[in-house]
Amino acid sequence: MSTDLDVADVLALLRAASAADGVRPLSEEAELRLQHGGPPGGGDLVVRDGEDVAGYARYDVGADGGVEAELVVHPSHRRRGHGSTLLDRLLELAGPRSLSLWAHGDLPGSAELLAPRGFTRSRVLLQMRRDLAGVDPDPHPALPEGAHVEAFRPGRDETAWLRVNARAFAHHPEQGSWTAEDLRLREQEPWFDPDGFLLAWRGDPDHGGELLGSHWTKVHPAGDVADEPVGEIYVLGIDPDAQGMSLGRALTDLGLAHLRRCGLTEVLLYVEEDNTAAVRLYESRGFRRFAVDVSWRR
């Protein structure tokens, strides 16, 4: 067990696991913290088999004070106890605190590792998908009076967006706690495209305008989540004071149209399974359940 980290070796492990399992083994947040570091209290663990990086885990302190982690074992080094080694160390680090681990794809090996140690399923995150063939590439949805939609402008819109994001996701354990640094890191990612980051304003944003909500889309490159590029409803958030204006539907239609104009044929999103109203809404808009991520907790 080691905390000595060669990021390139770990990224190679992640690519191998993704190819073998058909699902990305870590969340975007964990990958960003692997490459750029994270807040105090977190860290990285590596287990080696000879010179090979056989397994990796990322852990951080959650909003409730417990430890949240993700771990992955290289496909060529599975069934040799490396997952148990990483888990034992995570349990040691957690001590009396709760420990939660995300199992992306809900693969059988996760239950085999975690259930005997007293972990139970605590959260289920659905990935839903739909094709873009039937999407209007030039919609003209009705907007609230005095509102207009324009693309995100880096250097101007960060503060307003972070404020609305925190308000829109006040009860979401990850999304609602984003900081300026979280946003900055994503603006530096190769996939970031301000033209696909749509903001609904009332008034002039350069002269005291009010941000009502936004739809941030993302394009996954070929080989990331499918053989072809796939769009994503990355973050769709409406300020609580702007609820009930059908703004979410309007921004959804505009974002999907943008992704279709990019030449994409499919779009995905993530939603909590127990958010039944949202799941029903997305199903009514043509989305289907595609994959499941599970958070196990002890």
Automatic annotation (TrEMBL):
A GO biological process held by the record: mycothiol biosynthetic process
The entry's keywords: Acyltransferase, Repeat, Transferase
Positions of acetyl-CoA 2 binding: L236, G237, I238, N275, T276, A277, A278, V279, R280
Entry binding sites for 1D-myo-inositol 2-(L-cysteinylamino)-2-deoxy-alpha-D-glucopyranoside: E28, E174, K218, E232, Y270
Pfam families the UniProt entry points to: Acetyltransf_1
EC number: 2.3.1.189
Keyword Iron belongs to the record: no
Annotated ranges, domain N-acetyltransferase: 1-141, 147-298
GO terms, molecular function: mycothiol synthase activity
Catalytic activity: 1D-myo-inositol 2-(L-cysteinylamino)-2-deoxy-alpha-D-glucopyranoside + acetyl-CoA = mycothiol + CoA + H(+)
Enzyme class: transferase
Highest taxon, organism lineage: Bacteria
Residues that bind acetyl-CoA 1: L71, V72, V73, R79, R80, G81, H82, G83, S84
PROSITE patterns linked: GNAT
Task performed by this protein: Catalyzes the transfer of acetyl from acetyl-CoA to desacetylmycothiol (Cys-GlcN-Ins) to form mycothiol.
Family: Belongs to the acetyltransferase family. MshD subfamily.
Subunit structure: Monomer.
NCBIfam families cross-referenced by the UniProt entry: mycothiol_MshD (TIGR03448)
PANTHER family: AMINOALKYLPHOSPHONATE N-ACETYLTRANSFERASE-RELATED-RELATED
Entry-linked HAMAP family: MshD (MF_01698)
The protein's name: Mycothiol acetyltransferase
UniProt lineage: Bacteria, Bacillati, Actinomycetota, Actinomycetes, Geodermatophilales
